[in-house]
Amino acid sequence: RALQIFPHYQGTCCPITVLTDTSSKISNLAPSKKSDPSFRVTNMPNGIFPPFYLLANVDIWVKNDDLPQTLADMQKEKYYMRYGRPHWGALEKQRTVRAVDVRLLAMAKILGGSLHAFESGVFTADMSLAILGVRLCIDVAPQSRLSHDLVAQHMRAMYFISPDRDSAITGYFSEPVLVEAAAYLTNFNSAFERTNRWKILLEALVGSLRNGIVDAGFRGELTGRILLLLAWDICCLENTFKSSLEHTGCIFLSAVPLVQFLETLLHLDEAQKRTLNERFGKPEGKAWVRCSHFIKLNYAPNN
User: Fold this and answer.
1) pLDDT for the residue 240
2) pLDDT at 178
């Protein structure tokens, strides 16, 4: 209908429309050449336009002259909501939206648009992989249906689309808001009561690993990330008071003492705990851990 009212010009002038919405699958908006129903795609000499992807709109609210200086700063909404997609930073700038409401919005986005699954406690396999994917940074096969579905409905980002549109490389940005939301979906129910959905989520992940849809890593790196996140969740929950659950939007982005984290992860004996406390547990030189993801670094970060 829109094309019918466009003015028609002589020569080569013609309107161009760019669709950037993700409410439908990539294959629906831009099917591969062999699946495109348009007669012009297969008969016009220029073929179809190359796909659009990687829109550069991440971390646009981060200010170089106002960066977080301490671990406590990164627990404040004015800092952690600036990272990731611009929508979170725009909500923070309104000053009228509570952090817990932003977390609920992010939870609904991860689940496909509503909180019905969170309230019922029944997650589909796609929802489970979306929750885990935000924190585990799982690699999904580029030519799988899951790769397209996670982008269309579960906040996964598009990194690359092949020219023939048959495969798509996708992933999750490092977004603190989504990390907090995914961790909350894993560890709490709709009544703000602690629960443990790791078993449900991991069953969906194991099924995808066996089917070759998700990559476990060359040396089983995915297992290491899972163990680290399990220990991280336990520490964050131990340090959280139930009375604050309904009022804070930052539970799993808080810093955790290094000794507490290592004790939870490795079940240290008394001698090991005493040695670590002497080195890292003193008030004047206490060591802390804070993370959104546990990822192996393949290069030395700069300053």
Assistant:
1) 79
2) 95
Residue with token string 């489970």:
128
- Rounded Cα distance between 3 and 17, Å, is 10
- Residue range 237-242: average pLDDT? 76
Q: Is residue 85 a contact partner of residue 173, using CB atoms and an 8 Å limit?
A: yes
Look at strands 214-215 and 139-140 and give their pairing. Answer: antiparallel
pLDDT at 55 over 80: no
How buried is 21 (Cβ within 10 angstroms: 0-12 exposed, 13-18 middle, 19+ buried)?
A: exposed
276 within 8 A of 268, measured Cβ to Cβ = yes
C-alpha dihedral (229, 300, 220, 123), degrees to nearest 10: 40
| Bigger pLDDT: 115 vs 54 | 115
Strands (E), the chain: 139-140, 157-161, 168-171, 214-215, 256-257, 288-289
With residue 227 as reference, give the H or E element that holds it. Answer: helix 221-238
- Strand, coil or helix: what is 21? coil
Which pair of tokens denotes residue 278? 């002497």
Give the span between the Cα atoms of 186 and 176, in whole angstroms.
15
Map residue 115 onto helix, strand or coil: coil
For 178, counting Cβ atoms within 10 Å of its Cβ (0-12 exposed, 13-18 middle, 19+ buried), the class is buried
Average pLDDT over residues 153-158: 90
> Once rounded to an integer, what is the mean pLDDT over residues 142-160?
88
Question: For 39-46, what is the mean pLDDT?
Answer: 60
Give the strand pairing for 157-161 and 168-171: antiparallel
CA-based end-to-end distance of the chain: 54
**What pLDDT, on a 0 to 100 scale, did the predictor assign at position 163?**
76
Question: Would you mind telling me the total number of residues written for the chain in this entry?
Answer: 303
Alpha-helical runs (H) found in 85-124: 86-94, 99-110, 116-120
Are the C-beta atoms of residues 130 and 154 closer than 8 Å to each other?
yes
Name the amino acid, one letter, at 112.
G
Provide the β-strand partners of residue 256: 289
